[in-house]
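Severity: low
Component: inverse-folding endpoint
Summary: output formatting inconsistent between runs
Steps to reproduce: submit the following structure tokens with default settings.
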């Protein structure tokens, strides 16, 4: 994961602190990427990053009744951007990326 953070560094198109969050939460991004690829492989040309996170949250709550899946919604745009950086050539415009990150 450090390679990804070093590769992208403190890129202003990512939310502040995204790569430090990612280093601590790689499993969340891995699941996000898995579900996004699953939808893309099913023929979806576009999809919602927030929907994927909510599905992960739902499935985690069902599976792990003693804990709840917590993720700050501010990290979702970063995950969508990272997915597009790594898979955008094969799945162009799968996620709609906006210019502003709330700045």
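Observed output (run 2 of 3):
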């Amino acid at each position: 994961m450090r390679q990804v953070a070093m590769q992208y560094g403190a890129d202003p198109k990512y939310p502040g602190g995204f790569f430090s969050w990612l280093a601590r939460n790689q499993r969340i991004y891995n699941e996000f990427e898995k579900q996004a690829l699953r939808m893309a492989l099913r023929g979806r040309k576009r999809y919602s990053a927030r929907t994927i996170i909510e599905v992960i949250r739902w499935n985690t709550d069902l599976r792990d009744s003693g804990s709840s899946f917590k993720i700050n919604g501010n990290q979702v745009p970063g995950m969508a951007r990272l997915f597009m950086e790594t898979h955008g050539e094969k799945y162009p415009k799968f996620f709609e990326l906006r210019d502003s990150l709330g700045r």
